[in-house]
Amino acid sequence: MASHTATEIASQPECWRRAVQLAAEVGGSLPRRGERVAVVGCGTSWFMAQAYAALREQTGQGETDAFAASETPAGRTYDRILALTRSGTTTEVLELLRNSTAPTVAITADPETPVMGLADEVVVLDFADEQSVVQTRFATTQLALLRAHLADDGLAGAIADAERAVAELLPPALVEAEQYTFLGRGWTCGLAAEAALKMREAARAWTESYPAMEYRHGPISIAGPGRVTWMLGADVPVGLAGEVAGAGGAFVSSDRDAMAELIRVQRVAVARAEANGLDPDEPLHLTRSVILAP
Length: 294
Description:
Blueprint: H1 4-10, H2 12-26, E1 37-41, H3 44-58, E2 64-68, E3 80-84, H4 91-99, E4 104-108, H5 115-118, E5 121-124, H6 137-149, H7 155-167, H8 172-175, E6 179-184, H9 188-203, E7 207-211, E8 227-231, H10 240-246, E9 250-252, H11 258-275
Parallel strand pairs: 1-2, 1-3, 3-4, 4-5, 6-7, 6-8, 8-9
Helix pairs in contact: 1-11, 2-6, 2-7, 3-6, 3-9, 7-11, 9-11
């Protein structure tokens, strides 16, 4: 029987379609063009915040910062705080919403949690909620929603790419690699960080992540036989693949949308976990939400 994580990974194309449709209904709750916005979250949600912040600025929507909820600067002024929280119970996110003087909006999966009473407005993606501790479809579905709100015309292609990503066979060399380094540029830096986190959480793999242009500045020293350097997004720095190959490593990249390529990483993480006798639904030392004692 497939794990909950594997089933949730496979459902992402349909979840993204629903998110695109929903964006037209909830757009009034999301950041407006020209607003100065802080996007906050923890773990996976922080990395999705990074991706959205880069996309929002890239499309000229307004200055956008992304912070781990616990590290949001207290002295900065924003027109809106956008909080990303699957569980709606994460201590750091709730504390930030409780103390915010700016208008707040949250995206969550569970309408029966404390975030509903703390954020000024809430967008609920209950159709993308998950049974697994490891986040996959909720993370990408909220990013699909936010991309749709930014009028990203690449989402139709992303969904088609995602359908291929959930169906294709995984190369054994990817599953069996000794080490993985994930790279991104612009908005895909956040996805690279999330890819590395997924491999750590689900498979306890040795993973790192960097902006692609930073990889030459030290991290390439880890490249070698049996190790993978994996680019999220098609904007591969000139000459980098050859340098990795010259070090004996494998360089992986694709022209598909970076969110769809993240699906392939998620599948590798699950396959690697199962090959090593791990349960991807219940990663060691982790819980669905971090709730800290007062």
